[in-house]
């Protein structure tokens, strides 16, 4: 099991990854909240009253894809980009991965047409 974790996580231990994911989630949630202030306010699908449920339902795919983007970046950034992952980088990746996730979703929608 130890070898599996070393291959999966590299040289970084699990508690560090968990802390980075919490910071990345904070970054992603902040970016979603900022974007929600200006996004589609006149849309028929947007509720008139603020709803955390609607916010998460509307962004769940972005959050899931963002989770994988965050993991891939944190796991392989040292090997490929020679950038040592840190708490600050985790926060930045979390804040920006939503935009990357949206690009993946838009690309996937175009591929289906």
Task: Write a compact overview of the structure shown.
By secondary structure, the protein is an all-alpha fold.
Describe the structure.
This protein has one domain. It contains 4 helices and no strands. The chain has 113 residues and is mostly helical.
Helices and strands in order:
Elements: H1 2-9, H2 14-36, H3 52-80, H4 87-112
Biggest sheet details: none
Oligomer: single chain
Rg (C-alpha, Å): 16 Å
Distance between the termini: 43 Å
Number of E-type strands = 0
Kindly state the percentage of residues in helix.
over 70%
Number of domains: 1
Helical segment count: 4
- Category from helices, strands and their pairing: mainly alpha
Salient structural properties:
113 residues, 76% helix, single chain, mainly alpha
């Amino acid at each position: 099991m130890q070898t599996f974790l070393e291959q999966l996580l590299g040289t970084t231990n699990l508690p560090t990854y968990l802390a980075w994911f919490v910071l990345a989630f904070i970054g992603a949630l902040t970016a979603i909240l900022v974007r929600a202030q200006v996004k589609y306010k006149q849309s028929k699908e947007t509720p008139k009253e603020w709803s955390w449920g609607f916010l998460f339902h509307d962004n769940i795919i972005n959050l899931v894809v963002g989770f994988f983007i965050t993991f891939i970046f944190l796991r392989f950034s040292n090997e490929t980009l020679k950038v040592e992952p840190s708490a600050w980088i985790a926060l930045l990746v979390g804040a920006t991965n939503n935009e990357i996730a949206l690009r993946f979703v838009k690309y996937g929608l175009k591929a289906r047409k």
